[in-house]
Each structure stands twice: as C-alpha cells, then as structure tokens.
Amino acid sequence: MTAESLSPPEAAEETEPTPLRMRRVMGTFASGVTVVTGIGGDGTPVGFACQSFASVSLEPALVLFCADHRGRAWPRIRESGRFSVNILAAEQTDLCGRFGSGKGRKYEGLEWELSRWGTPSLPGVLTRVHADVHDVHGAGDHDVVVGRVLALETVADREPMLFFRGGFGVGSPAAAAAAVPAPGVWGWGWGDHWG
To answer: What spatial distance separates the first Cα and last Cα of the chain, rounded to whole Å?
Structure first.
C-alpha cells in the first residue's frame, strides 16, 4: 500500500523535525494543563503554565514537569527547591492565560493562599501536588524536573482543562479552528517561554 492510496487521515507525512513541525505534530497529543507555582528567593510568588507534567513513580512518589531554560519563574522555583502543581479545571482559562504568558499579570488581583509547604495554592483547581525538587536533567532547551511528592490535595471534582491543537478541549470549535493555524502562528503556549 502506498501513501497515495491511503485516505487523507491515514496518509503519512514524514518531514524533518523543525520547530514549527514539532509544534504541529506534538499539538495532536491532548494534554492536561497545570500551573507550577513557587516562591522566589525574594519572597515573591512565581508560576508558569505547563502542559508537560506526569506521574513518574508510585514508590517513591515522584512527578515530573518540563520547564524552558529561558523562562523567568523556573530558575526562581529551582533556587527555592519546592513547588506545587495546580491542575486546572476546564473553565479556568483565566488562570491559564495569566500564567501562560510572559506578559501576564500572574498574581495581581488573584485570591491565592500560601500552602503549608510554603508554595502558592491557586483557587478552584482540581488537584494540587506539593513537591520538593528531587532531580533536574537538562534536555535541549528545557529542564526535565523530577519532584518528590510531599502531599496530594484534591480540591474539586470537575472536568479537566485539555489542550489540543492549539485550543482548549478536544473537538471544541477553538481546537478545530487551531488545527490549521496561520503560517508562523500556533495557539496559546507555543509563543511564550514557559518556566
């Protein structure tokens, strides 16, 4: 069977992994959205939106996230050695927008609390994972951060925020519209340097 004989959804396209091609292809993997928060050395809260988050191990309890080397929040979180991962609910696009951009207002006007682990807890999220930085591995333009979980906090039982093809929700009008982005444009998250 040749690529020409396949129907369009099954047709394979092999190209070099340019940054734009990586964004488009990896955007077909639906993921949850989180905000990684911490306190900088000067005592100010910091945070960034993050799709690259996963459980690593049950015993010991380990999680990971990936953060851009060029980000402003991640170096400050790394210095403090502790973070919280706030897992967003479907309707929390405001929180996502605040922390998903390098130009955001982040904590300005936001009602947040300091957890007993000394990290910012964001309001109305599904879950919070509180952890210490356990290990950091450099990987290209990102760090792969492994955290040792201190506590798990279930906050709400609602639908999760999903990010797919540059939009929120699988099959949503935004995700469908973003499936064919304008040249040089990719939806939320890809234009900013998270971390």
So the answer is: 45
> What is the Rg, in whole angstroms, of the alpha carbon atoms belonging to the chain?
18
**24, 16 Cβ separation under 8 angstroms:** no
**The predicted structure's pLDDT at residue 165:** 76
Cα separations in angstroms, 48 against 6, 53, 116, 180: 41, 12, 20, 26
Number of other CB atoms surrounding residue 61 within 10 Å: 16
Q: Determine the Cα–Cα distance for residues 142 and 70; give it in Å rounded to an integer.
A: 8
Q: Which residues contact 115 (CB under 8 A, 6 or more apart)?
A: 84, 121, 128, 130, 153
Residue 71's pLDDT band (boundaries 50, 70, 90)?
confident
Tokens describing residue 107: 């904590």
CA 186 to chain CA centroid, nearest Å:
16
